[in-house]
Structures are given as structure tokens and as C-alpha cells.
Amino acid sequence: MEKINNILAEDTNMLNELVQKLDIKIIERLVKGHEKKFYIETLNGDKRLLRINDIKHYEWTKNDACAYNYITAAGINVMRLIDMDVFFEGTLSYQLFTWYDGNDLVDALPSMKQEEQFSVGIKTGNLLRKLHALPPLFEIEPWSIRYKRIVQEKIKFYEDNTDKTLNMDLLAYYLQDNLDLLSDRPQTFTHGDFNTENIMYTPDGQIGLIDLGGGKNSNDPWWDFCEIPNDLNMAPHFYIGLFKGYFKGEPPLEFFHLLSYYIAFGAFEGLLDSTCENASERIKCVLNWFNDMKNSIPSWYLI
Fold it and tell me: Which of 111, 137, 109, 134 is nearest to 123 (CA)?
């Protein structure tokens, strides 16, 4: 092997097995922390994304593979699954994907002019609309039942187990009072983790999706929009373009009602999660965007 970058000592043995199996020439760790992702080049010069999971997650891995194969067959521009298998004496599994040359939008958007951000948003909205045209892979209970249960469980947890704040109280009341928004919502195939870290922008201006939210791919399609970052100063025009590209024009007011609901719940849930960073800041941003949940259209959409 010619080159190894950022490899942890604990990963050496398992990677040595894959070097032989996959003809790896160059390998570089991409993500710090618990997630094991690697950029590799093979002896043939092919560029690949390698992802490794504990075998206890193998059912999830197989479902994830089904999702990638499903949308690849539908012609959606997504990283394509090439191979997967169990290795390291049956304790680990790997997935091998095609590699996107380019940058994710987190890195690409700040250097773009507003017009380009908007144009990239339009392209991304068009791609997401095609993804949401696909029916769910598996049967699942109605969205109103499933999501209402999740919301009410989190509200009860807050009421019973955590210190109260005015902002959290406001969100809890808003979420409870607007549960009817969830009624009669369709379910489609969704990305499940749709955010600018998982959208690739290639040198020739193409948009591609990576890192589906494994196991979370059957939802209200508009729920996919809920992961809008706190700091929109770098790219509000991307999100405006995203909405307009998705709807082929101005979004309906119903969309904004649900968008504000899903974003509010995400902020509420985040503060209940002790591992969620910047949760208090997130709530302040959300309440500012939606004027303490009095408005459904976020303030940054009106620039």
C-alpha cells in the first residue's frame, strides 16, 4: 500500500484484511469519532468510499443496501453501492460505494455568489422531488399515528423529567396545539438525513446525494426539509432555491406550516438529548425565524 492517512491504531488489523480483499493502494480516514468511513483508491486506480459497521448493525446495513439499490435503479443521482460483505471473523461488515469528486455543500456554498447558491438550490430541489416521487420500500403505519406518538412522548418526557424554561414551554404548547397538521400526510421514500453535509457538488456542477439516513427512509416527504442549520448567513439563497426548485415555484402555505412544525420539534427534541450540541442556541434560532412560532414562513425566506 502506497499511502495511509489518519488511520487509528485500533483499525490497523481490520484494514489490513480489506487491503488484500479490495486491492487497496491508498486509504484515508474521513470521519473522526465512532463512524468508520474511508476514502480508498484501488490498484486499478478506482476511487471508492469504504464504510465499516459492527456486525450487530448488519440488519440495518442490509436495509441500507436495499435503499441504495432501490433509488439507484430509479435513476436518482446517489452514491452507488458496489459491494458489501462480512469480514474480520464475522465481527464487522463493510460497504463499498462509488466516490464523488467534489465537495459537500457545507464546504462549497460559502464561496458561491448568491445567484449560484440559488441555482444550486434549484437543482437540489429538483433532485429531491424525484426522490420523493418514489413510494416507500416497506409498509409502515400511518404518519399521523407514528409521528404524533413521537411528539407526545417527547412532550411527556419534558413535562415529567426536565427543568422547565420559557422557550421549551412555548415549543411544547405549540407542538401539542398543532398536532392536527400531521393528519392525512402521505409517506414516500425520503433521504432520512437530508442536509448540506450529505449533498455533493461536483466540478461539472452536478448534484448528488450521499449517506441516506439508514432505516429512516419512509416518512412525510416534507419532513426531509427539517435539518436546516442555525447559521444561514452563508447560504440563505440556497434554501430559497431548494424550496422553489422542489415545488417548481412558490411553495404552498401548507408546506411552511409543516416545515415550521418539524423544525420546532427538532429543536425541542434536541434539547432533551444530552448529547446534542448547541441545542439551546438552536431553539433561539428557531424562535427567531418563526417569531416565537407566530409565523409559519421563516424570516430568512423573506429576504
Answer: 109
User: Amino acid identity of 213?
Assistant: G
The per-residue pLDDT for range 96-137, each reduced to its tens digit, is 999 999 999 999 999 999 999 999 999 999 999 999 999 999
Residues in the chain: 303
In contact, 131 and 189? CB cutoff 8 Å: yes
This prediction's pTM:
0.93
How do residues 72-85 score in pLDDT, each as one tens digit? 999 999 999 999 99
DSSP structural state of residue 25: E
Contact between 300 and 190 (Cβ < 8 Å)? no
Grid coordinates belonging to 220? 412525510
| Domains of the chain listed by start with CATH number | 3-98 (3.30.200.20), 103-302 (3.90.1200.10)
Per the DSSP assignment, residues forming a β-bridge with 85 are 94
Give the CA-trace dihedral at 2, 6, 11, 13, to 10 degrees: 20
Q: What is the Cα–Cα distance from 142 to 284, expressed in whole angstroms?
A: 32
Distance CA 238, CA 115 (A): 9
Identify the three-state secondary structure at position 101: coil
C-alpha distances out from residue 220 to 61, 72, 111, 165, 241, Å: 23, 21, 32, 30, 21
